[in-house]
Amino acid sequence: MEKLQAALAKARNQRDWRNDPPKDKRPRKPNLPQTVPEPWEALEKVDLSRGGLRQHRIVAHDAGRGSTNFDVLRTKILLQMQQNGWKRLAITSPAPSSGKTTVACNLALGLGRQSNLRTMLFDFDLGDPSVHEFLGIDRPHRLSDVLSGEVSFDKHAVRVRNNVAVVTSPEPEPDPTQFILSDQMETFLDDIQTVYQPDIMVFDLPAILSGDRARAFLKTVDCALIVALAGRTKFNQLDICEREVAESTNVLGVVMNGCHPSAMSQDDL
């Protein structure tokens, strides 16, 4: 953790901002700067494979017919978060394999097409991380290595656009809940937010009903989006999930993934 703090302190000194930092680390009004701070530019930039993105149904990297639904979702989420001064968005689901990672990746890349916004995507499904596979990002260290100070944040996070950074973990953490509940976690996120000034932080979380990992983290975000899978997610699962999320944070809405007219019945929900 000392190495992380040293790296963050160094990054702060590189900023061309001489005014005092705001007392509230989560300002109520969105910060839309015209220039990118130096700490952000220092992150390694990687190119994404268009073929690999299509394979995982990541379609929002470029504008087009395929990205329309995610563009609409992006706009609705962005307007509501800006209206409330929210910065941190969790994406979860009632059960695994509902498409939450697909939604998280598409949302982050769609937000990246807004040149006046800076977005960070974090893979916090630490028991079964998959963002690195969906985006084709190969990093040698786990997120816990960054939190412990073994690896500096600026050597682990990458930029996939000038204004989109991604934080992945290539393999499962042995004890994800302990990692999420550690004393360093909230300080770590606050420091990242202060130094890199992202407008939106998107967290891909585990499914609510698969354990306690998502519940443990929800208290640190401003709002959450729930992803359900048409034809598979049961109505009672969605109801329990929504109530449990609402106990810890604001429910931004529910996305029905894979929804077709034939699948839209309460019995199938």
Automatic annotation (TrEMBL):
GO terms for molecular function: protein tyrosine kinase activity. One of its GO terms (cellular component) is plasma membrane. Keywords: ATP-binding, Nucleotide-binding. Residues 13-24 have a biased composition (Basic and acidic residues). Gene3D superfamilies: P-loop containing nucleotide triphosphate hydrolases. The keyword Zinc-finger does not apply. InterPro entries: Bact_polysacc_biosynth/exp, P-loop_NTPase, Wzc-like_C. SUPFAM superfamilies: P-loop containing nucleoside triphosphate hydrolases (SSF52540). The keyword Nucleotide-binding applies. Residues 1-39 are annotated as: Disordered. It comes from the Bacteria. This is CobQ/CobB/MinD/ParA family nucleotide binding protein.
